[in-house]
From TrEMBL:
This is HEAT repeat domain-containing protein. It comes from the Eukaryota. It holds the Pfam family HEAT_2. It comes from Strombidinopsis acuminata.
């Protein structure tokens, strides 16, 4: 219910709380991942960034659906979301994933220093 709250900071706090609980209880990881995925489409950049953080912590490497959603955020309008998405691909994408490589290489050409540095670190 809190993930649909009108206030973005409440949605961020709810995501982080789910992640914390999932770290404590292994069986809750899939639930937290399933709750975080739709938040990647949230109207607020802070919520999208928090969703990426949760997925980076909990999803594990090689889940193509999660990786695809995070790759889409590597092209986000919000600078911090793009930066976090590019960094998260290092933890989420399978080695050699062509879509992830393309997104990271695109980030190397970004106008923003933070995004370029994130891409460099990811490689």
């Amino acid at each position: 219910a809190r993930l649909a709250d009108e206030h973005p900071l409440v949605r961020v706090a709810a995501l982080k709380a789910f992640a914390h609980l999932a770290l404590e209880a292994q069986e809750e990881r899939e639930t937290a991942v399933a709750l975080a995925c739709p938040c990647l489409e949230d109207e607020d950049g802070q919520v999208r960034k928090a969703a990426i953080e949760v997925l980076e912590q909990l999803a594990g490497r090689g889940k193509e659906s999660v990786t695809g959603l995070v790759i889409a955020r590597a092209y986000d309008d919000d600078l911090s979301v793009r930066e976090w998405a590019v960094c998260a691909l290092a933890e989420l994408a399978e080695m050699g994933d062509a879509r992830a490589i393309e997104a990271v290489c695109a980030a190397l050409g970004a106008d923003e220093d933070d995004v370029r540095f994130a891409a460099f670190r990811t490689l």
